């Protein structure tokens, strides 16, 4: 079983992990999505989101952009991060399962917004 969290605005992949509206969490078995749920982003506190998602047993995080600190924390926890993704959240999760989703390694420091991005 595998859990994929897509940082989203509604059904679309967000550009900013730390500032996303919700996480669409897809649980997959044998590369097929079996359940999906949407949980609100509980808010932006330093170091909070990586632990929040780790506690939910997430294996993979998909986002448009993400702060370098958050990527590092996920790596330490053995959670894979895929960045530079746009479009439909479920389509992105399915592409990941099919092995066709590529990470651009996009880090968020270039983006113009206040504060960090999920670090
Ligand atoms: Zn950002």
What's this entry about, in short?
This protein has a single domain, classed as Nucleotidyltransferase, domain 5 (2-Layer Sandwich), CATH 3.30.420.130. The protein has 3 helices and 6 strands, in the order ββββαβαβα. The chain has helices at 48-55, 68-76, 89-97, and strands at 2-9, 12-13, 22-29, 32-40, 60-62, 80-82.
How would you portray this structure in words?
The chain is built from three helices and six strands, in the order E-E-E-E-H-E-H-E-H. The protein has helices at 48-55, 68-76, 89-97, and strands at 2-9, 12-13, 22-29, 32-40, 60-62, 80-82. Strands 1, 2, 3, 4, 5 and 6 form a six-stranded mixed beta sheet that branches. The protein has a single domain (2-109), classed as Dinitrogenase iron-molybdenum cofactor biosynthesis domain (Nucleotidyltransferase, domain 5, 2-Layer Sandwich), CATH 3.30.420. A hairpin with a 2-residue loop joins strand 1 (2-9) and strand 2 (12-13). The longest helix is centred in the middle third of the chain and has 9 residues, at 68-76. The protein is an alpha/beta fold. Bound molecules: zinc ion. Zinc ion binds next to loops. Zinc ion is lined by residues 16, 65, 108, 111, 113, 117.
